[in-house]
Every structure is written in structure tokens, then in C-alpha cells.
DNA sequence: ACCTGAACACCGTTCAAGT
DNA sequence: ACCTGAACACCGTTCAAGT
């Protein structure tokens, strides 16, 4: 009965835009400052530690004052996710789409690692703002340079984003010690694995136990490049399309 | 100061294993039943609606009784994620790895769509249980059949999982109406896009506005298959390895 | 126009007490 | 061994009142 979907947060700008000139000399609270504080808090304590009350306390202000600059907590989360997306450095195009795609992927990874608490938000939230599309723009530019026609480029874009976000969220939300599976346990549980019908997992246990995230990420990017190469190669035939 | 990482939840079995025989005739509460109810609740109302108190109320029991069968709320969430993973149907191998890989991906998608609220949990939570490795086993079996050596298979596995989870979480957490971007707004904002330096986004707006999730997913799977084909093809040379 | 405090309807979890 | 209620320390958000 209780609809709980995130609000569209679409084209309409925030209902509570701050005044233009400085607000008469008050506390100087601002949507921007609220997000700044929220970002710092999440970076230090994690998403779960973000509460409107705690955020207000950190800012030395009453909890309810925040609602003058931000619709609600969900809007704060959306804002953080959009900031992350917007802060991804767009690498200059070199003309070598392989290199450019790799560079973009690395940029993405860098900001995700810098803000591990925010990264998962990017995946779940629907972000319609112009800011949030910076990555898409960069990726589409690269694909255009590679000769991928616009319609197909959109599909490729979605494929790339799915991998990037999937890989990065997995990475940032696995603790620094862990490696995606129970590192210590996997080896000893070898017999348990085999009796559970997990033959192949048992056989690969040694490799599953270790995980170099950077290398793994690069491997994935290589796979994407390979897929794209195959796609471009196969369309060599009907490529002559100049009207 | 406040560590809030999810607990390891590793090799050690739940601290609160239920009695073996029926519990003397009490309410018959069980970890399994708790998870059943939690699953139903999340499927109907969404993750945000899951609370220990509400869950207990639905089960007609005191809130604290749950803690006799479940460590805490996080453990419930972990349990749900593991159930999702475990419930993925493992397709029988046909010998055609392309077909088998596609079938596995589709199985994954089907359970994700059946439990949209749970899918995102799979990504963020560290799942070390044997149950959760069913998908990995299936994927590794397929890759083995395709002739991918164990060590490389693990990398490929991680690539596949990153894409699958990234794509599916994106799909389930975009509302049924929305399509990943602001469907209605994108067309009108064409000029805004161009002035924002989002040339390529503007050009692709028409294609970005529409999103057939099923087709998009299939496209991604095709890309994975293509990447794998390229990889297998290039190792044709040193393939003769029979001792 | 912005800030504030009290208030409402919730949370997860601990603990001592029951059976 | 399991269940229970009271209690603690929190939440997000509304609303009427302040300046």
C-alpha cells in the first residue's frame, strides 16, 4: 500500500532553490554546503551514518533548517550520487578509442575509490540531471570517434556502464581485507565444496581466494574493448554508407 | 569512530542455529520462517519497508523473538541475498557454451525480476556461504566446457558477474515507467543539452529516451559472448596443450 | 525568507524477567 | 530454550511559532 519508490527527481529543479544574494547575513546555509557536509560525513563514516539530525549537528544547526535547502534525505542522497558522477574527470580524446575508453574507465574507478560510500548510490538512484550525464557524454564521444553509429552507441554505453558500476560497487563494498569470497576459508573448505556439488568452484578455489581489484578491473576493461573490436570488425562490410 | 562495515559472515555458521527437533510446541518460529516472511514483505513493500518490528508484527510475534533465530537485521538482509543467489536455476549444460552462458544469464535475470527489492542486496553484501556460490559454479562449469583454463575462468567469471549484477540492479531499480533517463524531458531539453557541452548526449537523446530492458540485456550478453570468443580465438595458437 | 523546538510516529537492539 | 515487555538511544518529517 505504501509507495516507496524514489521520486522522479526529473526535469523540475529543486523546489527549494536558495536565494540569489547572500541571505541577509544568516547562518549562510546552502544546498551546496549541505551536500559538502554530507559528502564529508559519508566519506568518513559511511552511508549508514548519514542522518539528517547528525548532519545538522555536524553543521552546528538545527536539524530542520536543512529542509529549507533540501527536500528530504533522499534528495541529499541523490545529490551525492550526482556529484560523484559529475566529478568524474573526462579525459581528453586522443583519437585512439581504445586508449580513451580505458582512460574513462580508470577515471570512473578513481572517483569511486575516493568515495566508496557514495558509489553504490549511483547504481540504485535514478539520476536525470544534466550533471550526471557527463560520463555518458564522454563515453558517447569516444564511441563516436570509434565509428559506432549513435543508436548502437547507446546500447554499447549501457553495456559499459553496467560493467563499470557492477565492478566498482562490488570492489568498494568488499572490505579492504576481503577479496570477494572468504579468503581464509575457501582453501580449507575444499572438501565441503566438492561434496556440495561445487566441483568447479572447488577446483578454482585457489584463484577465487585471491583478488587484485586493479588487475581484475583492467581485465574487464580489456574484455569490453575486445567485444567492441569484434563488433566494429564485423560491421566493416556494411560500413560504406556515405550517402 | 563507529565501524559500520557489514560483518564478515564468513565460515562460522549462524550463532543461533535452531533446535533439531520441533521446539517443544512453541510458536514454531524458525530462521527459515523468518526469512520466508521477510522475503514476502520485501517483495510486496520494498526493502525500505522491512523492519524487525514490522516483520515481527506480520508474523504475529513479539519483535524480540526474531533475535532468537537471526543475529540482527543485517543477517536477515544477508539471508535474503543468499536466497536469491541460491534460487537461480542452474541450466543443464548443452555443450554449446554460448547457449549455456546465455541461459545462465537469463536465469539470473528472471530471479532478479521476480524479486526486484532483493537484487541490489546481492551486489553490496559479502556472501561467503556455499549456497551463494551456485551461480559461480554454473558459470565456471560453462567456461570449463568452453576450454577456458581455471585461472582465467575466474577473471572471466568476475567480469560476467559485474555485468550481470550491474545491468540487473539498474533495471530493477529504475521504475517500471522510467527508462534510465528522463523519458519525457530528454527530447525537449535538446537545446539545454547542447549548450551544456553534451553534444553527443543531445544527438543520441532519441535513443537514450527509450529503453527495452530485455533487448538491452541481451545486447550485453552478446557483447560478453563476443569478448569471450575473441579471447578463445586468440588462444587458438597455444591451445594444443594435451600432455 | 529562513530558522527553530516540540511533537509524532517510527526505528534496532539490550536486558532482565518470565515460562 | 525460547519468548516477552519495558527501556534506551536513536530516526525522518510535520507543524506552528518565532525573527
TrEMBL record, chains A, B:
Domain HTH tetR-type per the UniProt entry, residue ranges: 28-88
Residue ranges of the DNA-binding region? 51-70
- The coiled-coil regions, if any, are none
What keywords appear on the UniProt entry? DNA-binding, Repressor, Transcription, Transcription regulation
Region Disordered: what ranges?
1-29
What Gene3D superfamilies is this protein classified in? Answer: Homeodomain-like, Tetracycline Repressor, domain 2
- Which Pfam families does UniProt cross-reference here? TetR_C_1, TetR_N
The record's annotation in InterPro entries points to: Homeodomain-like_sf, HTH-type_TetR-like_transc_reg, HTH_TetR, Repressor_TetR_C, Tet_transcr_reg_TetR, Tet_transcr_reg_TetR-rel_C_sf
PROSITE patterns the record matches: HTH_TETR_2 (PS50977)
Primary role: TetR is the repressor of the tetracycline resistance element; its N-terminal region forms a helix-turn-helix structure and binds DNA. Binding of tetracycline to TetR reduces the repressor affinity for the tetracycline resistance gene (tetA) promoter operator sites.
Query: Would you tell me the protein name for this molecule?
Result: TetR/AcrR family transcriptional regulator C-terminal domain-containing protein
Q: Which organism is it from?
A: Myxococcus landrumensis
